[in-house]
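Worked Example 4.2. Read the sequence first, then its structure tokens.
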Amino acid sequence: MTRVEHLDHAFGIGERRPRLSWRLPPEAARQLAYQIRTTNGHSLDTRARDARTTDDHFVDGQTADGPDPAGRDTAGMNSDGPDTAGRDTASPGSDVVDTGWVADAGHILVDWPFAPLKSAEHVSWQVRVRTELGDSDWSGPCSLETGLLEPGDWTASWIRPAETDIPPAGQRPAHDLRGIVTCPETVTRARLYATAHGLYEVFLNGQRVGDQELTPGFTQYTVRLQVQTYDVTALLRPGDNEIVVRLSDGWFRGQVGLLRSADQWGGRTAFLAQLHADGTIIGGTDSTWTTLPSPIRTADLIEGQTSDLGPLPTFEAPTSSPQPTSDRATRTPRPSAEQPTRTPQPAAEAPTHAAQPAAGVSTHAPQPPTGVPTRAPQPSAGMPVEVATEIGFGGLVGVVAPPVRRVQELSPVAVTFPAAGRQVVDLGQNINGWVRLTGLAGVTGQITLTHGESLGPDGDVDTGHLAPDMPFLPQPLSAGQVDRVTPAGADTFEPRHTTHGFRYVRVEGGPAQVTGIVVHTDLRRTGWFTCSDERVNRLHEAALWSFRGNACDIPTDCPTRERAGWTGDWQVFSPTAAFLYDVAGFSTKWLRDLAADQWDTGVVANMSPCPPAEGRHGPLGGWNGSAGWGDAAVIVPWSLYQAYGDERILAEQWPSMVAWLDHVERAAAGGHHPARKPDPHLWDTGFHWGEWLIPGEQIGDMREYQARDKADVATAYFFRSAALMARIAGVLGRTGEAAGYTALAAAVRAAWQAEFIGADGTIRPDTQHNLVRALAFGLLPEHLTQAAADRLAELIRAAGTHLATGFLSTADLLPVLADHGHADVAYELLLQDSEPSWMVMLDRGATTVWEWWDGVDAAGRPRDSLNHYSKGAVAGFLHRYTAGIRVGAPGYRDFRIEPVPGGGITSASAGHDSPYGRICSSWRLADGRLDLEVEVPPGTSAEVVLPSSVQVVGPGTHRFEHAY
């Protein structure tokens, strides 16, 4: 498999020197040398653009084609790049540049060996390797293409819809923007570059461009705004081409975050696009574009979308074209006088809203929506757009992560009628996304869709628990998640300018067929687990779906109430996520926003991207910079390095890490809790979320909670980040700083021990979470470690074998027990069937992991979010301990297989697609014997640990037997 950066399909990237990766031939133990060749941007052979296939082509020339790992029908899905498999063929006469043989063992994230790439440059590259097996064949060609890399590449203008009165947030319509671009007779390669302040969709000659959703994505817009690149070659035709853009508030202007604040990055939406044909700019947004009414009457990511699919109002066409208001606008090429001026009409057969799956297509295989989504606006309609001369072109960036897509479709598992005129649809799974309605042609009024995670006692959708209710929030805040549509003869409706977290949908106003559309970042699946206990398998699936529901362009806390990129959530779950999915680009994108949000004092915001209302100068500004949340600046890059071997992310984030640790040092030295003596290495001041959501804990008065002493938590994280910084500095060759952070970590550890370990060796506070953290972080002297683990087990037994951990330490609870001789207790907690426990969640109908341990009480009453992935980090225990796959060298260049059976589980298996290839561990207990099978990918080695033996094995499949 060949890859560019962390992308399967490197199209529109922002790297001039992208890194290349490839996998070795099967059974190869080590690469001795490699050779890379590349062709120029004119080498694309369009004959290679056939049906989408997987990208698993090894460098020995063998191709492993197979079904898409997400279970989708992927034929024809890609319209964002030239070929989703990343393959093209060098044509005769292309310029070929060759590295020659390079004696090097590296084949993961190898630096670009050629001249830096230019803007909009398309290249094809191939690699072959030399191993102990000999020289391989050349790999299949892999393409990559840069986006527009410089502000000066843009000649188009930012434009805004003509808005007179702007309604309140949540009640604002989407606008259609329309322009005409003239295309030459022959085009071999056409690219559309687009972005927006808001959410946008593009339609070219009546066909939707691309299959991405919620573009341009969520970033810290004042610093970083992503530009999407689309291959529109097949959609262009000679002469005039109509571009229609649908533009709504999205994250930019809509309600976001804990406070549901609006207009956080600006009070007006805007759009920017530029069309290139064979390397020449042929058009873009400018003053000739017009604003058209949209069928979307309101659109908000939280509140929902209201659409009227009836005839649209029209405006009288302006008598003359408005003059550009800036020099930049005049640089956009205009159609020549010889070109026809008639506006092309959409094809009559274009669907009225969204394309339907072809006959026989599985409901688990979503098709990309195509066609004009509503009745097309009349050619004469429109008001002049505004040219936004004050918006610049700095901060425009290429993509580093896969886009958000419609990744799966779910058919209802049940439909009930709790009251007259109400239909409740159960999808059987809590998801993030929306629904598609069909069979609407006979509906004469408005249909209302209310989305929720639970049902009330009457069997109707219950959304009361999703309405935020905390004393510091503006009241009232709605639960949102309501879509409305007036079909007016249209047969199909699918909202794409909102998104919801839900399992159930209440349908009012008419009968309709409902299909659930799962929407999230299109991440490549890399991890699997199954075992003999179906309850554990269900828990693993719930954790998986919780992450899927919270991976909508950024890692969120929940897909319902806040939808915010809380830093503490991601630092807890990111190692587990990195086993299940390739989150390298996804996390890199988010970390760049974290750094952009960071204060000049080093404080890390609670969430990223951080709305200004919740940042430094907002009403909750003092709550930023909490221990365990701000430490994501250090912990998340380290977890990426461990999972993918990416040193560059450590180097890139190094200034952010240093700034955070500098802030913590100042905070610890600059004050002290009034009840204890000052110690410059004890962090006991400021606001901290602490362990957060301990079972049975009621927060109540936030002022009282804010005043609580949480020095045990804060100082532990101070040590954790300082110790990691020492290791990171060593990786980066910063020897002096490594020594400094090593000394700092030792001083913080000593301060923690002096304050929280008594003279008799007892640890204070005597709580499960404090002991878990002390053991997991290495805070204890060696002679007290086992006693602390034993005390942890005692506390658990004293609680009736129940956990008492919250947000920060639950992920480490079972591993800490297993590491210190209490695997039996770990498995009893895992399988505990009384509250609080994971199994109670499942017994009460959970298909995702809850925010609170008692998210649904015994009477069936829900509270707060029912889709929070942090407690789903228990899946990491199943991967690393039950199945036994544990990372060794970064990127799994070497790893350990050490299964820890327990809990009556008689068999388990797990697989992980590491950067080097598939790792598998599968075991079975039978007849007093443990049978273990291990698969080791090329270029790696595994240490296999059994109760009485340790063996190191190389690539291939290995089997072991052991008395058990």
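Now turn to a second chain, presented in exactly the same format:
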Amino acid sequence: MRLLTIILLILAAPIYSQTGPGGVGNTDGASSLKIWLRGDDLDADADFTDNPSNGALVSTWSDYSGNSNNFTQSGSNRPTYSIGTFNAVNFNASAATVQFMNATSGGSYNNFSAFFVTTPIDVNVSHTLFDGTSTSLRVEQWNNTNLVGFTRYGVADYSSTLSTPFGTRSILSFHKSAGSSTMNFRRNNAGNNVNIGSSSAGIPYNTLGRNSVGADKATGDFFEVILFHSRVNNAQRIIIQNYLSAKYGNISIQQNFYNQDNAGSGNFDFKVAGIGRTNASNIHSDSQGTGIIRINNPSALTNNNFLFWGEDVKDANYTFSITDASNNYVDRIDTKWRVSKRNNLGTVTVSVNASDLNFNSPDGCNQLQLVIDNNSNFSSPIITHTFTLSGTGASAVYTATGVNFSNNNYFTLQYVDTIVLDDTTAYNGSGISNVSDTSDGCYKLLIKSTADGTPSLSENANVREVEVESGGKLVLDDGFRLQVTNGIQLDGEIRLIGDSQLLQTHTGTSQVTGSGNLYKDKQGILTDVFQSGYWSSPVTTIGSEYTIAGALKDGTVVTSATSTPSNITFVDDHNGATTSPITLSRRWLASFVNSDEFAVHQNENQTYNPGEGFNTKSTGNTSGQNYTFIGLPNDGDYSSAITYGYFSLLGNPYPSVLDGNQFLSDNSAVLNTLYFWDGENDNSGSHIRSAYQGGYATYVSGIGTPFGAGATPNQYVSVGQGFLVYASTTGTIVFNNAQRNFSTASSFYGKSSVTTPFPILRIGLDIELDNNEIYHRQLGVGFRGLTNNLDEGDAYMLDFQPSDFALVVNDTPGLFVITGIEDYSESIEIPLRVYLNQQRNLTFKIDAIENFTPTNIFLKDADTNQFYDLATDVDLTLPAGDYVDRFFVTFNNGVLSTGEETIDDNNILISDNDDVLNVRTADNTIINTIAVYSILGQILITEKVNASTIDLSIKFKKGQILIVKVELENGSVISKKFIKR
């Protein structure tokens, strides 16, 4: 059980284990590594760019071991910093004042390993390394011994047989085990054991660079100092020496097993680490070192097996950059590694801390791969391993198991971060022809300068960000959308064909940059030169603004991958024309923002902010003129101030539909209604405003009503569509990316039908005009749990005609085209106001019933107390007048029959027994005809009667709602609903 516990602890070791020199020991202060001073990073902050300048005085040499045992000095005793091929702390024994540094916490160990990389200088004194009160490590010159040695003050000097390496950068190391009086001295490729006469004597570390009781003092450079409080095993010693040798210019050492640290092998000199075994007692099987690659778990580690790895970049940032087409545009890290392998230790596990990698984006897929090759260009990888990511945040680790390295292998890290369109080929996408689809939301989309729009995006796609190089072209096919999480760098072209759209979902201000263009068509619906409409631009053309002339182009030739829209000709004449290029009259260009004026004349070069709309008239194209917007796509947050009681002509600012519900919700404190000018139904043939026949389609959240026979607005406002708003309070109107959506439908509104969660009744009125034309008005009533007073569900009518009708809101002046009232019940009465400028023939009707099935719907005439069943159209002729409190829509005019005999207000008796319907008049009035309808108005039975009573066979489904319509001899027509028994 204990063995199992030990194994589990090893397997669960965190990724930061073995981060000491060469991968021996840890830098968390918990291992036997007690002091680690590095000349390349004097403050031990892993930032190699903030070291002192050359010759600067050194006050603190910070400890890398995690123990904070820094070495410090002040005043004239400070050494200096030396910048050269390898940075060092320089002690000058010839200085007027001795130079040395004191440990924060001094002491000594009699069980230790110490490593020094130094270049001692011969100045006829002992070159002191570590010194204490009773012992000293030294490179001896005193008494001309020229030998590396150890001193026990007051006892003896113990010299090795190793000569002093004056003037030569060298690795000196000292090793002693507890209970032993033998110290092992090593200098580069030589070693010597010396009996120091005491098993309790140990290495001091009080000071660096002087003898505290004599004249000994160091001179020369100290590059690196390492102290362990227990003796490292032989495998660990070999690893540390190979690490130091590679780092400091390929110093000649014994057991030089790492041989990639030279020009012929590519100078993989940096952050060398290793694992290995000399025998069963000398094993080191888990290393990371100063780099980011951890290797452990060798499957077949036996005697004299070693694996080393090192980098070719000294201070890599571990960032990734994209490769070329020959490498399939993968992103590779800014360094690579090379392996030296001694014998076969089997497969290993390779791990990398996610926090050590600087991916291109935290939102990327970041599916990391380990690539192994015999060539440094990785053109033909031997094998690619896909890492498994475990943990989250600072604990996230990428791991690849079963990795087999061969001697001299190269390896690197890569991942697919970018979907690329280059020339006519796409790379790395999940969609058709390797382009993007909706599963690619964590990838960047890059359009190379050579891309000509083939292949195009022919399905919906999600990406993290987009870059279009200058000369490159991205084409979206009709009916699809590209959704981008973050920014777009647009220096080429994005062409949105037909109803294709571009969305961005980030918060905040625009993340679109560049000098390129988006192309987006807008199909106009106006068919003569007298009709006008509201527009807005989905692009900017001058910084953060646009002009009509700059953004709006002749789209007679619809946008394709190769189309070239022409500039529109603007003239002072009243009429536009279908010339080539097309002509528009500048006389009708108008806008109004926070104004009580309904038209402020502008010219085509007037600047507009995104979200501000404009008015223009048509070219007279009887099929509707197509236009093309060109510019940088709008994106992000926009705002427009408005004052209570004022109007603004605004519009959808984005190259995607605008969700009207969300827009109204975000701006509910300021407005509640969108008004869309419908000039398509203006057949006035006049430029005189008083003659215009157009009007406003109207939308409140969840309900839209058309003007006349025009289109009904819904939740989605199409690209380029302008609208009017009215401020109920002073405030700021905001647009943002959360209001964007995608739908394909007409050029006017976003979708042909949108589900609304509450019941809606659409009440219609046809009015016969003087020229025998029929004017139709629709009113919308939403049963949405509000009140019968003024609420956010009510929309004022802005276009009341000379003969018209409207809804009424309690205690509120004005006319309404939409009201939101209480929840549906049969007791509700909906007041109507009818105004006629002369006698008119009227037809009241129900245009639509949505999301509920009322049993009855009646038109109530309060003056005559007559109820007209609106299951069929109700025709009335009324003289001129303003009819207030006369007409109501109700849902009950009496008792709904359930098959029992009943008598209504017209003395009609109805009974239903055994599939026979009996109808008779109480006063024997003759019934001319009788008809039975379904609730949907379908005629089921019709009979001529010419009697006061009739029995009809009605073999219909039990519970079915039926309508009986009786025409009497006296001309009365009575309708009644009943439920089949």
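Notes for the reader: Residues 522 and 579 are 18 Å apart (CA to CA). Residues 25-231 form a domain with the Jelly Rolls fold (CATH 2.60.120.200).
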